[in-house]
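note to self — DONT lose this again. spent like an hour looking for the file last time. sequence + predicted structure for the chain T wanted, 485 res
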Amino acid sequence: MSPTFQPHRLSSTSSKQPPKKHLVTHEEGVHQTMQLSKNWRNKPLFRRQGDVRFKSGLEASKLLIAESNRRDAHEIEYIESITSTMECLSPLFDRNPRYAFVAKQLMEPERFVQFRVAWTDDNGVTRLNRGFRIQYSSALGPYEGPLHLGAHVNGGLIKALGFDNVFSNGLTGYDVGSSVGGSDFNPFDKSETEVQRFCQSYMTELAKYVGPDLDHPTMGMGVSEREMGYLHGQYKRINVKSTSSGVPFMTRKDSHVPGHAVVLFAKEMLKDRNQSLMGKRCLILGSGKNARSVAAKLLEFGAIPLTFSDESGHVYEPNGIDESKLKTISNIKEERGAMLGRYVISSTTAKFNEPGSIFDIPCDLCFPCGKIKTVDTDAVTKLADNGCMGVIEGGHKQVTLEGRHVLKSRGVMYGPHIVTLTGANIVHGHGHNLSNEDLESEVKRIYNDVKIAATEFNARGDLFAGGSMVGFLRVANAMLSHGAV
């Protein structure tokens, strides 16, 4: 890996090389013994209705979870993100209690903007939607994160995704912060001109808070290259500067990379089990850009994509989806509002909504790339019963919290989105000049960092715990140097 992309390089003035450290921080790596600071354990974590202290890392994590419930009990997705993350970080609080105080600070975003988005539909009627942008943390660098469009988008979901994105961006090792935005606007049942008018209205307000070297929006759920183009066009109309150091702002290039990175993470996970993607039968949930990029990369490695899905149901090719069939599906889905059901007209072997549940189809791997919380406990049970060996998230928060517990109890591999969806950051970190070799090298580096951290904290194989710890340590050590901000 080129020195340009090593965010934590170590230097020495002597000829003798220092011992190699982990990439987690400048001062202390995961493999080094963290100094236990008793005075921090004796300090109150909260000072509401009396001083509240903790004796163990588990107790600290429970106090933090209870505080988030007290303040934001109505934000279900956010509470789930806090709960799962703080439980993973409790061993870290045991080693260094000071990190519990940083976690308390990190639970509150730096800035959360909600605004009205007014636009006119094709009938001349004024329509209203809510727009969001949460700038969660700039401890490591300028904000960066996706935009999500869909009827399911609300303030609680945006806050949860912003919190998760802190760890996802942090574990990559790049100097980027965390932000997430979007709106409860559904682009799939609107005309092209309605989508354009909405995007222009949304960006007119959002442009006050984003820009090169400030906040870099990227593609997310419901935001394709076309929506990104409309948003960027409006931004350029309002602002003079739309690039930074020669890197285009809100670029639509390399939109396939996040999906390719998901497959490369799956490849690394299988390698640990002395297996490969060759011949693996793969369920793909969703049919957006990321899902189709996942399918294309799976075909490169000799895997067999079996399914795609959308609001109308799922299509199943018993003998697999080859390149020509994938191209047909892509052509259908590129047309706004088109449903997968049209595909069965062009295929004599495809089955539509047969069997009734997509999870009843036997498979080796599952790549959920659709709506959030698609894979629940029932789905995990069906997948495990049918011999599925791994669920690798190709979309945000695809597996429910309870579903993760079942995956662990059934011994099914789990690739969490905070690890697998780092492809967009890899692209931006390399200035949009990314080769396949560079992408694979970066995926290996990130995966090894996560795996080593999980092993160090007695969570071998738990990529969610490892990713949370690596991301948290990088962000937390930066926050410690900034003081109370």
